[in-house]
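User: Design a sequence. Structure:
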């Protein structure tokens, strides 16, 4: 392999590494916005029932936790997906579903009656990948 080939291979390897490290794929919120019909700010509508919609979202973006209380609450329940920086709620809406996409604190507060006993409150930076509140900051003497 000559110098030119090595340089090209090196540039391609660096580009691939950069793409891998930055995770340039779509986010759950952008994917939902493209796939479902927008009916309001961060609110979408789907023609399929909540469990089917939540399963499709979870297949595409694996949630760190999920609460499904449709069996116990019926039309008052839903399927709630927790991500480090988002809460996706999928609730019954006529014959289909209503999908909401919230930041962690907003989604946790909106769906507290469904997820409050199962999820801990999010930290100032959402949750980490294990579902533990993520906190950054602190005052004097923090971390000593």
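Assistant: Done.
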């Amino acid at each position: 392999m000559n110098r030119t080939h090595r340089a090209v291979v090196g540039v391609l390897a660096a580009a691939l590494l950069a793409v891998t490290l930055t995770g340039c794929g779509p986010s759950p919120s952008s994917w939902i916005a493209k796939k479902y019909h927008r009916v309001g700010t961060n609110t979408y509508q789907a023609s399929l029932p909540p469990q089917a919609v939540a399963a499709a979202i979870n297949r595409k973006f694996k949630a760190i936790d999920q609460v499904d209380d449709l069996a116990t609450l019926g039309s008052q329940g839903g399927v709630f997906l927790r991500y480090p920086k988002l809460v996706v709620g999928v609730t019954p809406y006529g014959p289909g579903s209503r999908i909401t996409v919230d930041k962690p604190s907003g989604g946790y507060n909106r769906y507290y009656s469904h997820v409050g006993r199962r999820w801990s409150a999010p930290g100032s930076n959402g949750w980490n990948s294990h579902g533990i509140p993520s906190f950054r900051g602190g005052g004097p003497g923090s971390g000593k």
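The CA atoms of residues 45 and 98 lie 5 Å apart. The chain is about 40% helix and 20% strand.
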